[in-house]
């Protein structure tokens, strides 16, 4: 078989066929780099930049950093330069990278499965306080992101994190990123399977493996054994979702090729059943398919979803089985409709009789101080474990049942609510113009204001809604806050105001959502032609839409259906 993707060179009558343009697939075209990024990765393995940080850059400072390391290889260790303060969104596309960035970094700590001990949480809090001006955001991929980090401090930060088993290895870059895992893995009373051993095995064997450190682009993974399907599996490059096979018992259904950004695609089921102990091997096989056959010519076409779109699931499964696994996977069933809330906010029973308490910060923003205080609250009640969720929430595990309400109150005093109002619970926002070099508009503060106002204005209305309305706010088209999967998704851009001026605003996507207890199947939100709102009008717009939904819906019609 020839697994090369279709090419764009049909023969025209009377003319010789043009030679097909290579897609940069290593297994088909060879490994000659076709662009600067590929060249950079081949010139010097990205993971090797760590040695230069420790031996040169941390001693000689920001100005000593090679540009390919600065904007390229440092990402493999979780470091991005951050946006210079004061540059408005209208200039984002006009300035050169060195004009947009300042000498500080965003540092991303990968937290596979979102699982932290209170000891680890204290170390993260200390790094935030000592080296990141107290910043700490819980991302929608179970990472913690800090800002204002100086290159001089990075070796000490690595030393502190790694001393407690935390890493920034491959937190960014063209490599296997953090593995999303059910935040209540191993504890939830409703769980079908605990994916923790598989997450730990993948991390131990392959995160930081040079053989997988030069992928065409980022590779996102997710695995859950919880019936709420709590890891946004439809929009990862690979996902495993627990199913009960009628003959083979409990295992996982395999999804491949999801992703958002500017070309959104929901993941495809391969129809294959994966036993729990086979998950690491199958994960490794799929990463290798991506490494060898993924498109490297155009960075905008390099995610696995583009290969999947061209090959289709049957061919992908065939290549995976024949060339990488060397055996056939059994067919398996699709997961049923999700059951329960995937954000885990509130007080819930554990299988051992204790409780877990999920709380909502506002759009994932916390701080070193708050994280240290969360560790204090947890430990005061005998807990040593905290989890982060893919919905920018935190969960304290192992709370004695008769102390759960005390924990709710103590976390509430930190601004972390276990029983939040609608928009506090459902609103997510990406980093935006405060720190992101690609941003066009501000997001975190805008969304924070919107949450406060909407929850106040719609206090009565929201109690009558049959299902939540999810609001996601993005600072540019890249969709880090998953706008296409929100009931109301807002994509940051400059818009024209009533006076004809260009002002920060958003294009509106409506009706998207991932599979959830109130929505059987995922669907991508649609842009409504010409529907844009200014940042100043955002609250009024959402207020109007939600009131109309409340008034016009038919019975229990969800927002997406309405
Ligand atoms: Fe930055 Fe755009 Fe991602 Fe927001 S969506 S964090 S603005 S790249």
TrEMBL record:
Keyword Oxidoreductase: yes
Swiss-Prot/TrEMBL catalytic activity: hydrogen sulfide + 6 oxidized [2Fe-2S]-[ferredoxin] + 3 H2O = sulfite + 6 reduced [2Fe-2S]-[ferredoxin] + 7 H(+)
InterPro entries: NIR_SIR_4Fe-4S (IPR051329), NiRdtase/SiRdtase_haem-b_fer (IPR005117), Nit/Sulf_reduc_fer-like_dom_sf (IPR036136), NO2/SO3_Rdtase_4Fe4S_dom (IPR006067), NO2/SO3_Rdtase_4Fe4S_sf (IPR045854), NO2/SO3_Rdtase_FeS/sirohaem_BS (IPR006066)
Pfam families: NIR_SIR, NIR_SIR_ferr
Cofactor requirements of the protein: [4Fe-4S] cluster
E.C. numbers: 1.8.7.1
Nitrite/sulphite reductase 4Fe-4S domain mapped to chain residues: 172-325, 425-558
Keywords of the record: 4Fe-4S, Heme, Iron, Iron-sulfur, Metal-binding, Oxidoreductase, Thioether bond
Domain of life: Bacteria
Gene Ontology MF terms: sulfite reductase (ferredoxin) activity
Disordered as annotated region, ranges: 1-39
Compositional bias annotation for Low complexity: 1-22
Top EC group: oxidoreductase
Domain Nitrite/Sulfite reductase ferredoxin-like: 100-164, 348-413
Keyword field contains ATP-binding: no
Family (UniProt): Belongs to the nitrite and sulfite reductase 4Fe-4S domain family.
Annotated function: Catalyzes the reduction of sulfite to sulfide, a step in the biosynthesis of sulfur-containing amino acids and cofactors.
Protein's UniProt name: assimilatory sulfite reductase (ferredoxin)
């Amino acid at each position: 078989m020839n697994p090369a993707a279709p090419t764009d060179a049909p023969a025209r009558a009377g003319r010789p066929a043009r030679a097909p343009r290579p897609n940069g697939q290593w297994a088909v075209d060879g490994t000659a780099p076709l662009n600067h990024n590929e060249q950079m990765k081949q010139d010097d393995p990205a993971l090797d930049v760590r040695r230069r940080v420790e031996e040169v850059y941390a001693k000689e400072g920001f100005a000593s950093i090679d540009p390919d390391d600065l904007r390229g290889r440092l990402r493999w260790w979780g470091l991005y330069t951050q946006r210079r303060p004061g540059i408005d969104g209208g200039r984002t596309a006009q300035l050169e990278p060195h004009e947009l960035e300042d000498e500080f970094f965003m540092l991303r700590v990968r937290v596979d499965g979102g699982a932290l001990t209170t000891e680890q949480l204290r170390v993260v809090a200390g790094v935030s306080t000592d080296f990141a001006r107290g910043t700490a955001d819980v991302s929608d991929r179970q990472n913690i992101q800090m800002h204002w980090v100086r290159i001089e401090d990075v070796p000490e930060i690595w030393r502190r994190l790694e001393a407690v088993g935390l890493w920034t290895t491959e937190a960014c870059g063209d490599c296997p990123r953090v593995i999303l895992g059910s935040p209540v893995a191993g504890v939830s009373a409703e769980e079908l399977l605990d994916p923790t051993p598989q997450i730990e095995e993948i991390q131990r064997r392959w995160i930081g493996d040079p053989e997988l450190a030069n992928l065409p682009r980022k590779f996102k993974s997710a695995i859950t054994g919880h019936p709420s399907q709590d890891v946004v599996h439809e929009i990862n490059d690979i996902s495993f979702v627990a199913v009960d096979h009628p003959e083979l018992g409990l295992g996982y259904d395999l999804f491949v090729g999801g992703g958002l950004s500017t070309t959104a695609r929901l993941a495809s089921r391969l129809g294959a059943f994966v036993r729990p102990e086979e998950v690491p091997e199958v994960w490794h096989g799929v990463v290798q398919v991506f490494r060898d056959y993924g498109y490297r010519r155009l960075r905008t076409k390099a995610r696995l979803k583009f290969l999947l779109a061209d090959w289709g699931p049957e061919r992908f499964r065939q290549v995976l089985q024949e060339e990488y696994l060397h055996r056939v996977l059994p067919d398996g069933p699709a997961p049923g409709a999700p059951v329960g809330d995937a954000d885990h906010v509130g007080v819930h029973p554990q299988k051992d009789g204790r409780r877990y308490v999920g709380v909502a910060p506002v759009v994932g923003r916390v701080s070193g101080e708050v994280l240290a205080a969360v560790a204090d609250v947890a430990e005061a009640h005998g807990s040593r474990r905290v989890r982060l969720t893919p919905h920018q929430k935190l969960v304290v595990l192992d709370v004695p049942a008769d102390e759960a309400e005390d924990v709710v109150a103590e976390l509430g005093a930190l601004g972390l609510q276990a029983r939040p109002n609608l928009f506090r619970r459902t609103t997510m926002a990406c980093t935006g113009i405060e720190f992101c070099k690609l941003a066009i508009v501000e997001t975190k503060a805008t969304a924070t204001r919107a949450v406060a106002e909407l929850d106040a204005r719609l206090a009565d209305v929201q109690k009558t809604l049959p299902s939540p309305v999810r609001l996601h706010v993005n600072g540019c088209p890249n969709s880090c806050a998953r706008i296409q999967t929100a009931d109301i998704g807002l994509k940051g851009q400059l818009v024209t105001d009533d006076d004809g001026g260009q002002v920060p605003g958003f294009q509106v996507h409506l009706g998207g959502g991932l599979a959830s207890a109130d929505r059987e199947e995922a669907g991508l939100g649609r842009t409504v032609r010409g529907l844009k709102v200014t940042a100043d009008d955002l609250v009024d717009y959402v207020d109007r839409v939600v009131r109309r939904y409340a008034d016009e819906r038919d019975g229990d019609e969800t927002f997406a259906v309405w």
